[in-house]
Specification:
alpha+beta; Alpha-Beta Plaits; four-stranded antiparallel beta sheet; two-stranded antiparallel sheet; 7 helices; binds uridine-5'-diphosphate; nucleotide-binding; nucleoside diphosphate kinase activity
């Protein structure tokens, strides 16, 4: 077992549809710990960096348009094997393939606007958390944590 942190984001369609509470509830019920959360509208620079692995894909422009079209609800969660478990809770990218009971299986209708993002690896999680919240400095001894070097964008 490994205690991990991941970056979870309710996308603009999920925020508009009032799904923030439902998504937080699922992660809390699973026993995960919310470390930080913020409603924010991100600029294209942050969005392009977030989706940099897709920069040569034909859908990249529309993806950046979509993710910057309205507020997202960005979160940092912590838990045992949370990277893998959260991806199972989120479901497959395409709503046609996302199993019932997963967040996308229950709420998403299109591949592009699929409600939620979750980091797919420890490396992505680190990079994504830093992009949205800055560096996490956590003092495990007294369970205090804070974010530093937050970029103002
Ligand atoms: N996406 C899209 N069309 C595609 C594939 C992906 O619009 O054919 C969007 C979709 O919003 C997806 C995001 O790009 O969530 C990132 O794609 P990825 O393959 O990383 O899927 P995820 O990790 O979000 O399941």
């Amino acid at each position: 077992m490994a205690l991990q942190r991941t970056f979870i984001m309710v996308k603009p369609d999920g925020v508009k549809r009032g799904l923030i509470g439902e998504i937080i509830k699922r992660f809390e019920q699973k026993g995960f710990t919310l470390l930080n959360a913020e409603l924010m509208t991100i600029n294209r620079t942050k969005a392009e960096y977030h989706y940099t692995e897709h920069k040569d894909k034909p859908f990249f422009g529309e993806l950046v348009d979509f993710i910057t079209s309205g507020p997202v609800f960005a979160m940092v969660w912590e838990g045992e094997n949370i990277i893998e478990v959260s991806r199972l809770m989120i479901g497959k990218t395409s709503p046609a393939e996302a199993a019932p009971g997963t967040i996308r299986g229950d709420f998403a209708n299109t591949k592009a606007e699929n409600v939620i993002h979750g980091s797919d690896s420890l490396l992505s999680a680190e990079r994504e958390i830093e992009n949205f919240f800055g560096l996490l400095k956590r003092n495990i001894a007294d369970d205090d944590f804070r974010y530093e070097d937050r970029q103002s964008m």
